[in-house]
Amino acid sequence: MIKSALIYKTVFPSLRQRDVQYKRVPTEEDWVSAKEISDKLEVFYLATLQFSRTKYPTANTYLPSVCNNRCVISQWSTSPIEETRRMALSMAEKFDTYWTDFYGIMVVATILDPRYKMKVIECYFPKIYGDQTSDEIQKIHDLLLRMFREYEGKSKVGQTSCASSSGDPINVSLYQSTMIPSKLNPLSLFDEFLSFTPPTNMKAELKIYLEEHVIPRVDNFDILRWWYTNEFRYPILHCIARDILAIPVYSCI
Fold it and tell me: How far is CA 191 from the centre of its chain?
């Protein structure tokens, strides 16, 4: 509505001449404030589009937008326009109230996205928490570790795949037998072998995953397929991802 009003800025003075009930024409200062607020609110409009443009809004893709919005709100609190500062303070208070209730699962889901891992919170948390950044990152790491240990216990201390209904140990040779060499890429067989080979030390699985470089961000990345392909490299994390990524983002908020 504000954006539409800005288009007809020059019409408002004429409206006063045609409508006797219209007694207050916006001043130039009012229009400056309206333009400022309209520009600021656009970031939330774009975030809303991101949430609504997909039928399957998994929780792993929205943390950067949410964190970015919080950083933007902090910037608004230093605006020279009083209305913007008041709006920012009110938004920050409401954001922080809800943030503490839902951010844990959303952060874990994002860490389980190989495009982000821990790097995403290492980027945004300093801007949100300031001096408390180390403590907040440690809380997330502890949460992830507790989840890993819980799932590890369910899979017989990491000796079997929790995705296996029979409970038998992972038979890597069985999966290797399905590999088909490629004439065009002689290393395709090797790459597939690596994707099927689990870490030698199951307790180091989480550490290995977090220490590996994030993969490049590409359009139409299918995170479910990525975890399906890498199930035998990260059997415990695969089970966590299977459960966490099944949660729609709306259930995390």
Answer: 28
